[in-house]
Amino acid sequence: MTLSEIAEGVSRCQPVEHRLQLISGGGGVTIIDDAFNANPVGAKAALRVLERFPGRRIIVTPGMVELGGEEEAFNASFGEQMAGSVDIAILVGRRHTAPIAEGLRRKGFPEENIHVVSSLNESTQVLHAMMKAGDVVLYENDLPDNYSE
Question: What is the Cα gyration radius of the chain?
Fold first, then answer.
């Protein structure tokens, strides 16, 4: 194939919904929707993507679920990784995200930038109260209903 044929093919590619999908959030805010599912490798990759954006970086996440006996350790590690990639962490689910918060704290993440909420609805309220033009918001994972707190 020629370069122009390749370019034509690439120009027709559409992003997969909820997998690092870029969305304009209005008001100069960029949303990265990676809410389809999360695993340790994918979550780390999403943080690397977020790091490339200028501006204040915010993550909204319930962490990772259904990882068996290693789930708590994976979430603690996820928190440690977040500490170097985000400016604000909104953690959805008080009990389930405790290992993430602990990982953030271990890396010296500012306590005032950790917001633990009970529901996605509450996370939206917190986010809207603080958002400003230039912010980039990563939604990492969606929590199944049976994990509601």
Answer: 16
User: Which residues have a Cβ under 8 Å from the Cβ of 21 and sit 6 or more positions away?
Assistant: 15, 32, 33, 34
91 touches 126 (CB < 8 A): no
Residues in Cβ contact with 110 at an 8 Å cutoff, skipping those fewer than 6 apart: none
**What count of residues does the chain have?**
149
Rounded to the nearest 5 percent, the helix, strand and coil shares of the chain are 40, 20, 35
Contact 123, 17 (CB under 8 A): no
Closest CA to 88 of 118, 111, 120: 111
pTM, entire model? 0.85
| pLDDT tens track, the chain, 149 positions | 899 988 888 787 766 666 667 777 788 999 999 887 778 898 999 999 999 999 999 999 999 887 788 889 999 999 999 999 999 999 999 888 999 999 999 999 999 999 999 888 899 999 999 999 999 999 998 765 545 55
